[in-house]
Design a protein that fits this description.
The chain has 2 domains: 147 residues, Electron Transport, Fmn-binding Protein, Chain A (Pnp Oxidase, Chain A, Roll); 152 residues, GntR ligand-binding domain-like (Four Helix Bundle (Hemerythrin (Met), subunit A)). Strand 2 and strand 3 form a beta hairpin. Helix 4 runs parallel beside helix 8, helix 5 packs across helix 7 and helix 5 crosses helix 8. By secondary structure, the protein is α+β, with helices and mostly antiparallel strands. It is built from 10 helices and 12 strands. The radius of gyration is 24 Å and the shape is elongated.
Length: 326
């Protein structure tokens, strides 16, 4: 008996990229020698191990990359795994605006002659074992011929479009009570005020629906045993506003603020139910639907002030405020 083929929606590239970002990855600089002998390199988080016997690793490179030819023509390449103190190197080798990536960078040729960057956590020098075409990328598989260990620092980790060390640092500041309430209130007003203005111009009706659904969910999870669900719904309310603003840089900043939000609501101050905030979130949604930017920003300011009121947090207490409690 045959079964009908289920309808599958097309994969939306932007969402696909965002969801891939949910998987934390290390960051490496892949290096080789160009045909003229000059060192070449780029930042990559597609590095992966393949086999122990023989020792094989891989990375993938966009076909549109200006360095594709250099890697295709080379017999060797090296994987240089970056530490969290080498985020500047990551940005340098990822930038198309830097003509000579190796200028001012400490490196040395490995036994195979491939550039090895100093002070990395580890470096793997490889001979090309195989190369495969895969969609808009080329996959390079290398057999490790030489490897070195270096710094004892922590790894540089990329997660949801940002270095995880930033989110982790913020988490520690929150738990340590080292973030001033006035500063964080101002940051929420500035960031989400800007995002609301953009959303009034750019958001689709469906995106506003998602924001309203998150507000509905906050109201549904008001019991004492519903803190976890309320925290997640609150995070969705603000992250949906960030998505509706259609500005990738501001969205990444909003992700960082969500880290502060979750830690604050979970560990710093009990996020008690705040039914007086319900109509204010509704007002934000209504203003978004009406494309009333000033009204949306005003409602956000009132929401923050209301959530702050009687929260038990004062400016001199140096802890994170409550711009998003239940």
């Amino acid at each position: 008996m045959s079964h009908p083929t289920p309808h599958l929606d097309a994969i939306e590239p932007k969402l696909f990229r965002q969801l891939l970002g949910c998987f934390p990855t290390g960051v490496a600089v892949i290096t080789t020698n160009a045909a003229d002998g000059r060192p070449a390199g780029l930042t990559c988080n597609s590095f992966s191990s393949v086999s122990l016997e023989p020792p094989l690793v891989l990375f993938s490179l966009r076909k549109a990359s200006s360095l594709l030819r250099a890697f295709v023509e080379a017999d060797t390449f090296a994987i240089n795994i970056l530490s969290q103190s080498q985020d500047v190197l990551s940005a340098r080798f990822a930038s198309s605006k830097v003509a000579d990536k190796f200028e001012g960078v400490a490196w040395r040729p490995g036994p195979l002659g491939t550039p090895l960057i100093d002070d990395c956590l580890a470096s793997f020098e490889c001979r090309v074992h195989a190369r495969h075409e895969a969609g808009d990328h080329e996959i390079f598989i290398g057999e490790v011929k030489h490897m070195t260990t270096g710094s004892a620092d922590h790894a540089l980790v990329f997660y949801k479009g940002a270095y995880m060390m930033l989110a982790e640092s913020l988490r520690k500041l929150v738990l340590g009570g080292q973030l001033g309430t006035a500063d964080i209130d101002e940051a929420y007003r500035a960031l989400y005020g800007t995002l609301l203005r953009l959303a009034c111009e750019r958001a689709s009706d469906a995106e506003v629906d998602v924001i309203e659904a998150a507000a509905d969910e906050i109201e549904q999870h008001q019991g004492k045993d519903a803190l976890a669900q309320r925290i997640e719904a609150t995070a969705r309310f603000f992250s949906s506003i960030a998505l509706a603003g259609h500005n990738e840089a501001l969205r990444l900043m909003a992700q960082t603020m969500t880290t502060v939000l979750r830690e604050r609501m979970t560990h710093v101050i009990p996020a008690r139910p705040r039914p007086e905030a319900f109509p204010l979130r509704r007002k934000v949604v209504q203003c978004l639907r009406a494309r009333d930017a000033e009204g949306a920003v005003s409602a956000l300011d009132e929401l923050i002030a209301t959530l702050r009121k009687d929260s038990g947090v004062h400016d001199e207490a140096a802890v994170v405020p409550a711009p998003a409690e239940g």
